[in-house]
Every structure is written in C-alpha cells, then in structure tokens.
Amino acid sequence: MARKTQPLTDTEIKAAKPKDADYQLYDGNGLTLLIKSSGSKLWQFRYYRPLTKQRTKQSFGAYPAVSLSDARKLRAESRVLLAKDIDPQEHQKEQVRNSQEAKTNTFLLVAERWWNVKKASVTENYADDIWRSLERDVFPVIGDISVTEIKAHTLVKAVQPVQARGALETVRRLCKRINEVMIYAQNTGLIDAVPMTCTPLLKTTQCKYAFRTSAPRS
Fold first, then answer.
1. 175 and 143 both lie in a single domain
2. Domain containing residue 168
3. Alpha-carbon distance 20 to 35, whole Å?
4. Local confidence band at 178 (pLDDT 50, 70, 90 cut-offs)
5. What value does the mean pLDDT take over residues 117-143?
6. Domain tally, the chain
7. Is position 24 within any domain?
8. Are residues 152 and 122 in the same domain?
9. Taking every annotated instance into account, which residue ranges of this chain make up the domain Core-binding (CB) (predicted)?
C-alpha cells in the first residue's frame, strides 16, 4: 500500500534549512518544494506528459513570493489541464504566444500595415485623410484592442461618438475603412471572419453601411 504524503505546513517550510546538497519537501499530488544549497526554495510540480508519458516538472516560482496556498492553486490548475490531456507547460507557452501576438496585432498596428498597402493605390492626400480619420475617431477607442478580440459591438462602440455629433457621412467612411482593415486582418490570417456590422445602433437610414466579409469593389 502506497504511503500517504503528509501535506506541508508554512511552519515546516520556514524551518527548512539549506544543506550541502539540494533536497525536496513533498506536499503530495506532484507538488514539491526544492530546497537549494544556496538557501532558495523553489516550487515544482511533477507530472507525466499526456502525449509522451515522460515524467517532467513545471516550475511554480520561489517561496515565499509564491505561498504554499498559491502553489496548491497552481497545482490544482495544472491537474485540471492534465485531466483533459493538456500539457500544463505547453498550455503556458501557448498563452505566452497568444499574449505576444495580441500585442503585435492590435487594431492600430494592423491598420498601419493595411494603410501602408492602401496608400500605394490612392493619392497622398487621400491616404493622409484616411489615416487622420482613424487616428482622430477610431484609434482612441479600439486602437489598443487585438483584432482577435474585436466583435461587432466593439466596432459599434468605435463609431458611436461620431454618430452622436451628427457626422453621419464620417460614420459611413469610418465603417468602410474599419471594414477594410478587418478584411486585411482576415486575409493575412489574423482572424477567421470579419464582424458583420458597425451600424446596428445608428438612427438614420442615410448610413446603412454594413461590414462585409469580402473585399469591397474598387
């Protein structure tokens, strides 16, 4: 019969002193605290990778910055992932990648890449007008949002202040330009589909420009 591991206590952890060689304290269910000969105390979670079945370990940080309670919560989160055959470390790497992609694929940065393509096919003055309109009315509202997080209601929010001041023709132009940016995002593989409309809350029949999922005619 397997011996049951006695859970750690804060008192036990605080009392643990460095030795000539590194050693471990066990909390159970894969959670250990590595006591380094240097005196540092590092949380580790040991598990078997779902795909390869190889034993590995995941770092949870150092004690006391990561408390015993925090380490147990992290262990619980990793065990939930493992129950779904998801490798916690691969999941963590994917989250970092997604975060990095979100930072480089904000609406503002994607719009800038689109504009650099767009301006080659229009006059310099028109290109400048496009950018100024986005800079003035759109970027302050949704410029910092990743295109992957933008929904139809996000786009409505972007043009509502312009609608409120009665600039309906400007709303129409902005909808068209925002739409082109989102189509560019779709065509470059950043999003799967373009949000359908930015105009459901507009109170006029004079500006019924809906977002399309295909490139506009020239």
1. yes
2. 105-187
3. 11
4. very high
5. 95
6. 2
7. yes
8. yes
9. 105-186
- For tokens 């310099």, what's the residue? 124
pTM value surpassing 0.85: no
State the pLDDT at residue 218.
40
Contacts of 43 (CB under 8 A, 6+ apart): 31, 32, 33, 34, 59, 60, 61, 62, 63, 66, 71, 74
Return the ∠ at Cα 154 (arms to 153 and 160), rounded to 5°. Answer: 80
Band of pLDDT at residue 205, cut at 50, 70 and 90: very low
User: Which CATH number goes with the domain that contains 28?
Assistant: 3.30.160.390
Q: How does pLDDT run across 65-87, given as a tens digit for each residue?
A: 999 999 999 999 999 999 999 99
The residues with which 56 forms a beta bridge, in sequence order, are 47
Determine phi and psi for 47, rounding to 5 degrees.
-155, 175
The CATH number of whichever domain residue 171 belongs to comes to 1.10.150.130
